[in-house]
Amino acid sequence: MQTMNIQENFCPKCGGPTENEGICNKCLAESIEWIVAEPRVVCAYCPTCESVKQGNTWSDTTKERQVLAEELALGALHVHNDVQDLHLTVESHEPSPNRTKCIIHAEGTLYGVPKTARVDVLIAWKKEQCDRCNRLSGNYYEGVIQVRATDRTPDLHERVRVEAIATNIEESLLEAGDRLSFVSRIDDTRDGVDIVISSHHIGDLITKQVTAELGGRTTRHPKLFGERDGKKLYRITYLVRLPRYRRGDVIEVKNRYYEVRSVESGTLKVFDLQEGIMNVIREDDAYRIVANVRDAQYVTVSFIDGDMAGILDPDTFMPITIPALAWLNLAEGSAFRILRDRENDRIVPVG
Hints:
There is one protein chain. By secondary structure, the protein is α+β, with helices and mostly antiparallel strands. The protein has five helices and 26 strands. The strands form seven sheets. A six-stranded mixed β-sheet has the order 6-5-4-10-9-8. Strand 4 and strand 5 form a beta hairpin. Helix 4 packs across helix 5. The longest helix has 20 residues. The chain is elongated and about 115 Å long.
């Protein structure tokens, strides 16, 4: 027969020994509701884009519905702070198209006492159009970007690049969680490209990137169209004016040829195609545009004779000679690019 030391504490509930001054761990663990859950969780989701609403915030998700339901069920749990070695498993099934029932099996220890429990959570799916799809369906917009060019129309390369910049920025903002900055529409017009945008933020990013890559400048023309929560709302027309000269344009200046490398504040940074050096000249409407280096053709050197090089004319396939410019470092069998100045019937080496 076990004897008890007179100094031991006794549990007032079960009469057994306890290390505490009050009830023992077993009775304490039994008296505590150690794990509970909200029996029903409502989850709003957008049937168009399948984004999910958490509180008042919509978020994109690529998770399968079963995985999302189990995460929502686990998020509905409330576990006592003193539980240790917690282990949870979830089973789920759909009793109806708009309901998912989750059964959570829980194991853990509370004050050294092993505990097990089963908790049921019902996920109720609620269809609701998200903020982004609501704006898209309502043709909401906060600005229009009009891309034009000075004394010309934007060429195919510039139009394609502008559309790619707008699309890439839209995708990067969406990945970063900015759901309300998007491109509503892109129109390829006779005069250039028009981009309808949903926010000033994406408008600023697109215009900044376009001018950084293609040159030019942007002017903004805001127009008040309403108020929200006491704040005035403006629609902005962004006019992006691309420069007359494009990067890569070969121009004739006083019978010399230059390749435009950049256009900045009324000056052109150019590459002298005669000397092979960089230079800066004043922007002038009188310069004649010969072509763009994107349209250059490759030719192969058939021979070198002093300061002359032999090639085949890419149009007639007849042998011709051109100056072997020092900066080209030509050698027999080497390839380089040329443009044809059709107005003056000249071959212009561009490297």
